[in-house]
């Protein structure tokens, strides 16, 4: 039986970035990771979005839970750690929701004049264990493809919605 989880024997569609070179004249973008949490990695029909409670500029906005990749971590290791910290559960990681215009599939989180220096990699992920919202989130909601625009997303996450909608089968 094949599965899209990270334990599958087929290779990931997009290579994970390695460590940033020390000799770069420009600082390397900081990588963050996010999970589009679904009940079924093979045939997802809805995604669990989380609503931020802080910082002030993000209070009330919805997001893919996740966070920054720490030195020495791979993006997938960071995703496991971040989801455990934020939601208290484990995850099986599925396929990447890749940016088709980026070699590593990451998304630029800079918007307009605000250069955050952040890039984000997002994967479908199936949670296991009880989900418990930590202090960073005030609410969580399962959204179908048709409901994705019913909440106000963090600005950087909005660009990922068309790829997520396609993964949800447009349902």
Descriptive overview:
It is a single chain. It is built from three helices and eight strands; from the N terminus they run ββββαββββαα. Strands 1, 4, 5, 6 and 7 form a five-stranded mixed beta sheet that branches. A three-stranded antiparallel beta sheet has the order 3-2-8, with no helix packed on it. Helices cover 14% and strands 27% of the residues. With 171 residues, it is α+β, with helices and mostly antiparallel strands. The protein has a single domain (30-167), classed as Nucleoside Triphosphate Pyrophosphohydrolase. The longest helix has 13 residues, at 75-87. The chain is globular. The chain has helices spanning 75-87, 155-158, 161-167; strands at residues 30-37, 47-52, 62-63, 66-68, 90-96, 107-108, 118-128, 137-143. InterPro entries: MutT-like, Nudix_hydrolase, NUDIX_hydrolase-like_dom_sf, NUDIX_hydrolase_CS, NUDIX_hydrolase_dom. Residues 1-31 are annotated as: Disordered. It catalyses: 8-oxo-dGTP + H2O = 8-oxo-dGMP + diphosphate + H(+). Its EC number is 3.6.1.55.
What order do the helices and strands come in, and which of them pair?
Blueprint: E1 30-37, E2 47-52, E3 62-63, E4 66-68, H1 75-87, E5 90-96, E6 107-108, E7 118-128, E8 137-143, H2 155-158, H3 161-167
Parallel strand pairs: 1-7
Antiparallel strand pairs: 1-4, 2-3, 2-8, 5-7, 6-7
């Amino acid at each position: 039986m094949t599965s899209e989880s990270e334990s599958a024997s087929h290779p990931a569609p997009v290579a994970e970035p390695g460590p940033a070179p020390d000799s770069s004249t420009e600082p390397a973008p900081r990588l963050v990771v996010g999970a589009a949490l679904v009940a079924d990695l093979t045939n997802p029909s809805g995604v669990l979005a989380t609503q931020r409670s802080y910082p002030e500029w993000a209070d009330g906005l919805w997001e893919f839970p996740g966070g920054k990749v720490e030195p020495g971590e791979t993006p997938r290791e960071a995703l496991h750690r971040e989801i455990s910290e934020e939601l208290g559960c484990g995850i099986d990681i599925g396929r990447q929701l890749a940016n088709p215009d980026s070699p590593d599939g990451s998304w630029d989180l800079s918007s307009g004049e605000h250069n955050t220096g952040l890039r984000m990699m997002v994967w479908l992920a199936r949670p296991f264990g009880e989900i418990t919202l930590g202090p960073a989130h005030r609410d969580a909601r399962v959204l179908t493809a048709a409901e994705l625009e019913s909440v106000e997303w963090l600005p950087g996450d909005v660009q990922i919605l068309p790829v997520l909608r396609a993964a949800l089968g447009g349902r």
